[in-house]
Design a protein that fits this description.
The complex is a heterodimer.
Chain A (H helix, E strand, L loop, with lengths): L6 H14 L4 H8 L4 H8 L6 H11 L11 H5 L8 E6 L5 H20 L10
Helix pairs in contact in A: 2-3
Chain B lengths: L4 H15 L10 H7 L3 E3 L9 H6 L7 E8 L2 E6 L5 H17 L4 E4 L5 E4 L2 H15 L2 H9 L4 H7 L4 H10 L2 H4 L9
Parallel strand pairs in B: 1-3
Antiparallel strand pairs in B: 2-3, 4-5
The chains are: A mainly alpha, B alpha+beta.
Chain lengths: 126, 187
């Protein structure tokens, strides 16, 4: 996905909201305010709006600006950890970005593997 | 450290050995202690679904991490970096298990990607370092082998400890003043 904003999701939401309320492009643009009809058309075709237009659209759709932010593909594959999971790390004081990113992936993947029993265990149990 | 903590740590090292049916002077492998405490111990290449290039990076010396404990949601897991020497692996694992045994709460800080890490105070780090050292090489065990003429190298080998740790425990426990006749190599 080339942008941080999911433009396909944004386009679908704008079109859906406009058509459900039986508004033409010009009327919808007027309702949003400070957005031209041509800009609105381009958004509905999947083009990325500028920041000001984007924020106005979010307000019109009554959603948070983060609603349309695209998540990296790797994050989609990795399960998120529940809030009650504690992670303690023994490491150098400063970690490179590469290690930090790799750690996030490793921790999430290991957690899921441990839950499903798909992790090699070297511990000697009672 | 809190008053009495050092002595209690030595007692805990003895009690845990008893619980897993080991002599108080015997080595207690970190993986045995982890298993007794209900933890899985694994390494990057033990995680099947982990992409190979990430596993390879997290298994080298340059990446900068030693061990990681993940607890909660029915999971109790310790991961370690296999690039470390066997002695370093033991001390890293023991240190992290010591934090668990001490019941350290710590504070949570953001790593990235929505992940929080538990961070400990300097006092908590000192406690975990002390307890970890006791768990790996208890005073009673070190005294036992010193009295039997073991060299530092032999003790290090038996307890999968670094020579530095052996000498450190020899000095910090006061054994250097207690055992007069000893094998060569003890400073």
């Amino acid at each position: 996905m080339p942008h941080e904003i999911d433009t396909a999701k944004l386009a679908a939401a704008v079109l859906d909201h406009r058509t459900k309320r039986h508004l033409g492009v010009r009327a919808a643009a007027g309702e949003i305010g400070d957005v031209s009809a041509s800009t609105l058309s381009r958004v509905e075709k999947g083009n990325l709006p500028d920041l000001d237009t984007y924020l106005r659209l979010c307000r019109w759709l009554d959603v948070s600006p983060s609603y349309f932010t695209a998540r990296p593909a790797s994050e989609e594959r990795e399960p998120r950890l529940p809030d009650d999971v504690i992670v303690q790390l023994r490491a150098d004081r400063t970690l490179s970005e590469r290690t930090r990113d790799a750690l996030v992936t490793m921790i999430r993947t290991a957690y899921a593997a441990a839950q499903s029993g798909e992790i090699e265990d070297e511990a000697l149990h009672d | 450290m809190k008053r009495g903590f050092k002595a209690q740590a030595e007692e805990q090292a003895a009690k845990l050995r008893k619980k897993v049916k080991l002599k108080t002077t015997a080595p207690l492998p970190a993986r045995r202690l982890a298993g007794h405490l209900g933890f899985i111990v694994s390494r990057p290449d033990g995680i099947g679904a982990l992409p190979e290039h990430i596993g390879a990076w997290m298994s080298c010396n340059a990446c900068g991490w030693s061990a990681c404990v993940i607890r909660g949601g029915g999971v109790a897991l310790v991961l370690y970096n296999p690039a470390q020497s066997a002695a370093r692996q033991e001390s890293s694992l023991m240190h992290e298990l010591a934090h668990v045994l001490c019941g350290h709460e710590g504070t949570d800080i953001d790593l990235s990607g929505g992940l929080s890490l538990r961070k400990y105070s300097p006092e908590q780090e000192d406690e975990a370092a002390w307890l970890g050292g006791c768990l790996q090489l208890p005073r009673a065990a070190l005294r036992h082998y010193l009295a039997r003429g073991y060299t530092p190298e032999r003790v290090a080998n038996r307890f999968t400890a670094s020579l530095d740790m052996v000498h450190y425990r020899y000095n910090i426990t006061g054994l250097r003043y207690e055992i007069r006749r000893r094998a060569p190599g003890w400073n």
